[in-house]
Amino acid sequence: MTTNIPRTRQSTPAREDIRTTPRETAALDRGVVIGRDGQPIRRMKTGSDKYHISPEEWPPGYVLEWKRHTILGQEDPTYEAELYQRGWRPVPADRYPGRWGSRDAKGSIIVGGQMLMELPIQFYEEAKADERAAANSQINGSREQFGFAPTASGFEGAGTSNNPAVRRNSFARSGTERVDAPKPRHQISVDDED
Question: Would you say 97 and 104 are in contact if contact means Cβ atoms under 8 Å apart?
């Protein structure tokens, strides 16, 4: 014998409204509310970049970047020492409480094998200038290999140089052009066999 009991809607607990003053509401970004404890609560969208940190959030005078911390779960102390010698320092977790860990997390910020690190902007600009100089050195080396003058001051080429000797004796022109080549059809393998 079965008894038919009429179904009723289950009552849901009353939802507590989060109260903010108009001034607080105006200052909050989308996806941020003030919780009961007065602290901001952030909601990250699914698929958002967990590594994103906007330059507005950087400390003044510093650049932040994610640097490799582990590969397949193994730390590389030599690489970390190299970063330290270049001026990179780990960002402490308490600088961004609750964003990449618990609110009371201590130590460095590490996410998915990457460590958030900071560098004084002077060192960052010097490193970029060094990289540009190294790239220009490689370009000049390949240009010289093919008989072109280096791109130093006064040797920019016949059409752009103010040096009369360069203008009168240069018939070759150089330039760069993007080439979208198709992907190779064959897998290239390197065998150690002789």
Answer: yes
Look at phi and psi of residue 153 and say left if phi exceeds 0, alpha if psi is from -120 to 50, else beta: beta
β-strand pairing of 114-120 with 62-68 = antiparallel
What's the pTM? 0.52
Percent of the chain at pLDDT exceeding 70: 63
- What's the alpha-carbon Rg for the chain, to the nearest Å? 29
- Half-sphere exposure in the Cβ direction for 177 (13 Å, CA): 5
Q: For the segment 51-71, what is each residue's pLDDT rounded down to a tens digit?
A: 888 888 888 999 999 999 998
From the list 151, 129, 121, 130, the residue with the least C-alpha distance to 139 is 151
Tokens of 88: 């990179």
Euclidean distance between CA atoms 86 and 144, whole angstroms: 32
> Counting every residue, how long is the chain?
194
Give the 3-state secondary structure percentages of the chain, helix then strand then coil, rounded to 5: 25, 15, 60
